[in-house]
Specification:
Elements lengths: L2 H23 L16 E3 L21 E6 L10 E5 L7 E3 L1 E9 L7 E4 L2 E4 L6 E9 L2 E6 L8 E7 L1
Parallel strand pairs: 2-5, 4-10
Antiparallel strand pairs: 1-8, 2-3, 5-8, 6-7, 6-9, 9-10
Length: 162
């Protein structure tokens, strides 16, 4: 076996072990209310860079209808970071009820982005590098977003108001 073949085999074996370990230890996240899955509007094999500018306690701007869910960072797609921002890159902590488009930017093979709450249950796939878009309707209440394999370390929530 050549050196490059050995290196590739080692990398693939390590990735398989990491994914197997994550998949076998993660509990299913609880869903509040009936889950309604939306059909993806857009899918692609590559993700673009995640927004990085914002003050930590800002909410989405009034009238904003696009949300961005990300995992990882620009420098390290496998970093244990999860975020929900508005289209300007500001973190989202509260939103008015209404219709939104959520674009999930998932450049990681060991993470996913999963948003759930009343009437919403949308997620990217673990092990898939993808950018995927969903149309969702948010009603008043609390919505949670998590990385399913790393729910203890990668989670956040938003409050939706009337």
């Amino acid at each position: 076996m050549t050196r490059s073949s050995s290196t590739m085999f080692a990398v693939l074996a390590a990735a398989a072990l990491a994914l197997a370990g994550c998949a076998s230890t993660s509990p299913e996240p609880a869903s509040s209310g009936p889950a309604v899955e939306s059909e993806p509007a857009v899918e692609s094999e590559s993700a673009t860079a995640a927004p990085t500018s914002a003050a930590p306690d800002e909410s989405a701007a009034a009238g904003s209808t696009t949300l961005i869910g990300t995992v990882g960072t620009d420098a390290d797609p496998e970093a244990f970071v999860i975020a929900l921002t508005d289209e300007t890159g500001a973190p989202v902590t509260t939103l008015p009820a209404g219709d939104y488009t959520i674009t999930i930017m998932d450049p990681a093979v060991m993470h996913n982005f999963h948003l759930m709450g009343e009437g919403v249950d949308v997620a990217s796939e673990v092990a898939a590098v993808e950018e995927i878009e969903f149309e969702i309707t948010l009603v008043p209440g609390t919505y949670e977003y998590v990385c399913d394999p790393h729910v203890a370390n990668m989670r956040g929530s938003i409050e939706v108001t009337s």
